[in-house]
Amino acid sequence: MKTELFQSVHNKAEYINFEYTLNWQTLYFGLFLSAIPYQAFTLARMCYIYCKSKSKATLHLVPFTSLMMMGYSNLFFCILDNIVFRLPSTAIFTSLCASSDPNKFLIILYILQLNSTYLSLGSSFLFCVTRCIIHFIPLSYKKIAAWTLLFGFVIIICFGIYASSFMFGGIGYCRQWDHPFSFGAVYISYAETDQRHDPFFVPVTITLSLFIVLVNIGVICQNKKMAKTTNAGRRVYTDSAGKSLYYTTLAMIIPYLFHGCLTVVSVYYPATSAYVILIRSAVTDVFQCSILALYNKHTMFQTKKTSPVAIIPLSNLS
C-alpha cells in the first residue's frame, strides 16, 4: 500500500494565499544559519594552509584527510538540513510550495538529506577510528588508516543509496509542521512509497553514536596509559594534545548522543518531531562548529611560522 500525502499544503487555497510575516521560526533558524559560512570558510582556510605548507610530511595526510572528510560531510548535512527542514519552517516558501504539485525534485532533496545524515555520521565514525588507529599503532598506522578511510567512505556512500532506495519511485511534497510551529510552517516530506520509514535509520544512528562514544573513550584511556609509561607521551598528552583530545571528544559525543536519542523519540513519538528539529538544529550546529574551532587553533593551521618539532607528534592532530 502506497503512503499518502499526509498534511500536504499543495493546491490548497489557504496556503496558496498565505502571506509571509516575520515569525519566531525565522529568528530561531536564522540564528544558526551562520554555521554554514563559518564551516565553509574554516574548512577552506585549513585546506589552503595545508596545501601551501612546505612541510607536508609533518602534517600527516591521513588524519588531515579524515578531518576534512568529516568537516565537509557535516557541512553537506548542514546545508541540506536547512533546505529540507529549517528554511521551509520559516514559511517563506509556503505559498510557492502550495502553488506547485508534489514532484520528483522535492524527493531528490529529501533523499540527499538522508544520505547526508549517513555521510555525516559515518565520516565522524571514520575520523574516530582513524584517530584510534594512530594512537594504538603510531609507527605503522598510515596504510591501515588510509585503507580504512577508503573502504569506509565507499561503504557509507553505497549504504546511503541502498537505504534510501525505497523512495526512488515516490514523490516529494511540502507538509505542514505540527505544534509548536505556526500555520504555514512546512517541511519537505515524501509519499507514494511502499514503506513509511527507512528501517535502518534508527539502529544505524544509535549504533554509530554509541561506537563514536566508545572509540573516543578508548583513545583517551590509551593516551593516559602512554602518559604514565613514557616521558614523551606524558609531555605530549598533558600539553595541547591532551586538552584537544578531551574537548573534541566531548564536542563529538554530545551531539551524536542527542541525535541518537532524538531519532528514537521522533520515530516512535511522531507528535514530538517539531520539538526534535528545534533541539537537534541547535545542538548539531553548535558542536559541529566547535569541533572545527578546536582544530582550527591547532599549531599546523596557524599562519604564524612554527618549527617542525612542534607539529611532529601524531597525537597533536588527533
TrEMBL record:
It comes from the Eukaryota. The keyword Aminoacyl-tRNA synthetase does not apply. InterPro entries: 7TM_GPCR_serpentine_rcpt_Sru. Pfam families: 7TM_GPCR_Sru (PF10322). The chain crosses the membrane at residues 27-49, 61-85, 105-134, 146-173, 200-223, 244-269, 275-295. Keywords: Membrane, Transmembrane, Transmembrane helix. This is Uncharacterized protein. It comes from Caenorhabditis remanei (Caenorhabditis vulgaris).
